[in-house]
Amino acid sequence: MYRKILITTDGSTVSQHTACAGVAFAQQMGAEVLALFVAPEYQYPVYVEIIPPSYPSEEEYIAQMRRTGQQYMDAIMRAAQQAGLQHACMTAFSDAAALKIVDVAEEQQCDLIFMGSHGRSGWGQLLLGSVTNKVLSQTTRPVLVHRLVREPGA
User: Fold this and answer.
1) Contact 26/32 with Cβ under 8 angstroms?
2) Can you give the pLDDT of all 154 residues of the chain as single tens digits?
3) 111-122 in b/e burial notation, b at 16+ Cβ within 10 A?
4) Of 3, 60, 81, 84, which residue is 20 to 30 A from 123 by alpha carbon distance?
5) Is residue 39 helix, strand or coil?
6) Phi-psi region of 84 (alpha: psi -120 to 50; beta: other; left: phi over 0)
7) What pLDDT is attached to residue 127?
C-alpha cells in the first residue's frame, strides 16, 4: 500500500519511540523509510558588527545541526537496517518545520508521513503538536499520527 514513508524526529525520547514505531509500520508495509530532522535556520546576530567570539559561524552551525540530526536519526537507520528495509535520512533547515516536512514529502515522493503528536516536553510539546496540526492542514498526503499511551520510562 505504501512504498515510501517519511518519518520525522526532533530527537526527543518520545519522538524516538514514535520513529521506531514508524519503522515497525514500514516493515509491515514493506516500505522504504526516509527519516527527517528539521533544524531551525541559522540566526544572524542582531548586531552583525559586534559578533561575540563564541558565536558560531553559519558553516559551523550547519555542520553541528547535521551532526545532531545524524545522531537523532541513527537509531531509526539501525532499526530500518535490522528490519531489512531500504532507508535514508536527511537534515533539512527551515523555521517553518511543518511546511518543510510537507515539501520534503512531496519532493521525495513519500506516500505517507509518519509523525508523533507530542515530542519535546513543556513548551516544545505544544510546538510539536502545532507542527503536527500544521502538517495535517498543509498536505494532501496521508499522515499517520502516532501517540504513545504512556511516557517512555513510565
Assistant:
1) yes
2) 899 999 999 988 888 889 999 999 999 999 999 999 999 999 877 766 676 677 888 899 999 999 999 999 999 999 999 999 999 999 999 999 999 999 999 999 999 999 987 644 454 444 446 888 899 999 999 999 998 765 555 4
3) bbbbbbebbbee
4) 60
5) strand
6) left
7) 46
Tell the burial category of 28 from Cβ atoms under 10 Å away from its Cβ (0-12, 13-18, 19+): exposed
Across-strand partners of 32?
4
Look up cell 515539501; give the residue: 103
Which CA distances in Å does 123 have to 51, 87, 97, 106, 126?
A: 29, 31, 16, 29, 5
C-alpha closest to that of 22 among 5, 38, 37, 10: 5
β-sheet with 32-39: strand ranges across? 87-93, 32-39, 4-8, 112-116, 143-146
Structural domains in the chain plus CATH codes: 4-146 (3.40.50.620)
